[in-house]
Amino acid sequence: MIKLFDIQKSFGKNKVLQGISFVIPKGKITVIIGRSGEGKSVLLKHLIRLINPDEGKILVDGTDILSLNEIELKEFRKKFGMLFQNAALFDSMNVFSNVAFPLVEHTNMTDHEIASRVHEVLELVGLKDIDEKMPEELSGGMRKRVGLARSIALLPQILLYDEPTTGLDPIMTDAIDQLIVNTQKQLGVTSVVISHDIEASFRIADRVAMLHEGKIILEGQRVDFEASKHPFIKRFLEGRATGTEL
Amino acid sequence: MKTLGLKFEWFVTQTALVMGGYTRFAGQFFTWVRQKPFRSRQIFLQMNVIGVDSTPIILLVGFFTGAVFALQAGYSFRLFNAETMVGATVGLSLAREIAPVFAALMVIARVGSSMSAELGTMRVTEQIDALEAMAVNPYHYLVVPRVIASIAMLPLLTVLFVFIGIVGSYIVGVGLLDIPEGPFLYRLEYYLEMKDLIGGLIKSGIFGFILAVISCYQGFNAHGGAKGVGLATTRAVVIASVSILVTDYFLTQWILELTR
Ligand SMILES: Nc1ncnc2c1ncn2[C@@H]1O[C@H](COP(=O)(O)OP(=O)(O)OP(=O)(O)O)[C@@H](O)[C@H]1O
Ligand SMILES: [Mg+2]
Questions:
Q1: Superfamily, domain A25-54+69-242
Q2: Is A115 at the interface with chain B, CB within 8 A?
Q3: What is the tens place of the pLDDT at every residue in A165-210?
Q4: What is the pTM of this model?
Q5: ipTM at complex level
Q6: Which among A220, B157, B213, B248 has most CB atoms closer than 10 A?
Q7: Nearest C-alpha of chain A: how many angstroms from B142?
C-alpha cells in the first residue's frame, strides 16, 4: 500500500503538485488520469523517489521513503519496476542487454536462465527476434514494449507504468492492457498506470484517480465519475474543449 | 557602487556553490569506488576509449611538439654554442610539463567532450533516472569506471607522448640541424632523470581524475534537451582545460619542492 500525504512540488514558479493526498491499494490496479502537462509523470516519479517533494510524506508499505538513505533507497527500489513515458532504454545497449540489465544486476541467474527469461518477457509484450536491434532502430511503440519487458523482468511487487499504451495500435493496446491485468491477477502486484484515455482506464482499473490543477479531484470507479457534477470531469468524459482551449 | 557590491557577492556565492558541487561530486568517487560490484568490463571499455583510441592523436601531437621544440631550441641554443643541450632540454620539458599537460588537453578534447555529451544525453532522455529506478547507482555504474580508466590511462599516454616527442626532437635536431648525435643523446641521458618522469606521471594521473570528474559532472547536470547537452559539453571542455592548467601550476610547485 502506498500512501501520499499532501505532496507539493514546484519547478521554479511552476506549481505542479499542490497537495496530493491519496492511497494506492496493494495488489490492485490504480490508474492516474489527467490532461497533458498536469504532472502525472512527476507524481509517478515521486513514488520511487526519482523526484523529492517540496512538502509532504510518502509511505510505501509503512516505510517513510523520504527518510531513506542512499543504500536503503537502493534496496527499496528493488521492489519496483518502472516503465518511463519515453521508455528510457539504454541507447548504448541492444534490446537483449536492455531487458537483461536488471537480471544481470540483481540476480545470480546463469546466462542461460537470463536468456530464457528475457525471451519470455519479450514474448509477453509481443516481440520476437529483435535481440540484436539497437533502440534507435525500433519504432516508438516497440521501444515502449521493450521498456515494459524490462520493467517486469524481475517480477517486482510494484509496477509503475507511465502511459504504457500511448502510441500503440488498438490491437497492441488491448494486448498490453491484458498484460497489465494478467500480471496483476497472477502475481498480485500493485500497479500504478498513467493514462489520459478515460475509457481504457475504466476497463483495466480497480480505481481511477483524476489529477487536475495539482490535486486529485476524484477517485473511484466508472459510476463515481459518471455521477460527478464537477464541470471538468464532465468535460473530460465527453472530450469537449471550451473557449480557453480553442 | 552598491550594485557592483551585489554583483560581486553574487559572483562569490555562485563560485562557492559551483566549487561545492564539484567537490561533492569528486568526493563521491571515494565512496562509490569501494562499493561492489567491481565493474571491470565497464572499466576496460573506457580504458579502450580513453587510452587505445587516443593513441594516434597522442603520437601525432607528441611528435610535432618535440619536433618544433627542437627546432626553436636548436636555433636559440646555437647562439651560445649549446646545441647539444637540445635533446636534454626537450626531454626534460616534455617529461615534467608538456607531455602531462598536452596529453590531458588532447584527452579532454577527444574524450572529455564525448563523456559529457554521452552522460548528458543519458540525463535528458531519462536513462540515468532509469538506472536509479532499477536500483543501480548511476555514479557507481557510469562515473566510477570512467574516472578509474582516466586515472590509469593518462600516465600511459604521457609516457607515449614523452617518447615520441623525443623521437621528434631527435629527427629534427640530429637529422635536420646537424647536431652531433653522440653529445645529443649523452646529454639527454645525463639530465633526464627518473624522478622527472615520475613527477610528470603523478601529475598526469591527477589530471586524469580531474578531467573525468569535470566531464562527468557536466554530463550529470545537463538539462534542457539537445541544447543543454551542447552547453554541458562546451562547459566540460573549457572548465576542464582551465582546471588542468591552474592545477598544473600548483602541482609543479609542490613537486619541485619535493624533489629538490
Ligand atoms: N525536471 C523538470 N524540471 C522542470 N519542470 C518540469 C520537470 N519535469 C516536469 N516539469 C514540469 O511539470 C509539469 C508536469 O509535467 P509532467 O511530465 O508530469 O506532465 P504529464 O502530466 O506527465 O503530461 P503528459 O501527459 O504530456 O506526459 C510540466 O509543466 C513540466 O513542464
Ligand atoms: Mg507524462
A1: P-loop containing nucleotide triphosphate hydrolases (3.40.50.300)
A2: no
A3: 988 888 888 888 988 998 888 888 999 999 988 888 999 999 999 9
A4: 0.90
A5: 0.92
A6: B157
A7: 12
